[in-house]
């Protein structure tokens, strides 16, 4: 399967899906033995390893929550070099007062939004998909 590199086609085929559950952004303490399989995403920062993990895992391990989020996956197979996708959905979400934190996987884009705004975020992304570039 070839990734989509045309912005118009990509917007029309986003197919956003709201994943179940709540997710936390946390910085792991030193010597934390959290298995990689328990994480959704990781990035190494100067201050330590930041991870996105399920709420249940964070609470069970007593990890401090920095951001409680809903996780939306765009199911289109997006080209990592495509220009404008992140700008388009960030603008659409911003216009309705929703912040977004984006993680690009090799195959799909993943958007983390404030948990309480998940339904509005989904409505906004579906409208963007329907209207395509005109809404961007």
TrEMBL record:
SUPFAM superfamilies noted in UniProt: ACT-like (SSF55021)
Keyword Transferase assigned: yes
Coiled-coil residue spans: none
GO MF annotation terms: transferase activity
DUF2241 domain residues: 4-69
Swiss-Prot/TrEMBL keywords: Transferase
Keyword Transferase: yes
Name of one Pfam family that matches: ACT_3
Protein name as it appears in the record: Acetyltransferase
Organism taxonomic ancestry: Bacteria, Pseudomonadati, Pseudomonadota, Betaproteobacteria, Neisseriales
């Amino acid at each position: 399967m070839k990734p989509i590199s045309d912005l118009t086609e990509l917007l029309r085929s986003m197919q956003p899906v709201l994943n179940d559950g709540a997710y936390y952004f946390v910085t792991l303490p030193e010597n934390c033995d959290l298995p990689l399989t328990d994480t959704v995403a990781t990035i190494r920062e100067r201050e330590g390893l930041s991870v996105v993990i399920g709420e249940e895992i964070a609470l069970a391990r007593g990890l401090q929550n920095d951001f409680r989020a809903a996780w939306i996956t765009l199911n289109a197979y997006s080209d990592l070099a495509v220009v404008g996708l992140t700008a388009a959905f960030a603008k659409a979400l911003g216009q309705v007062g929703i912040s977004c934190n984006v993680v690009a996987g090799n195959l799909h884009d993943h958007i983390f939004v404030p948990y309480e705004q998940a339904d509005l975020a989904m409505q906004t992304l579906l409208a963007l998909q329907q209207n395509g570039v005109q809404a961007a």
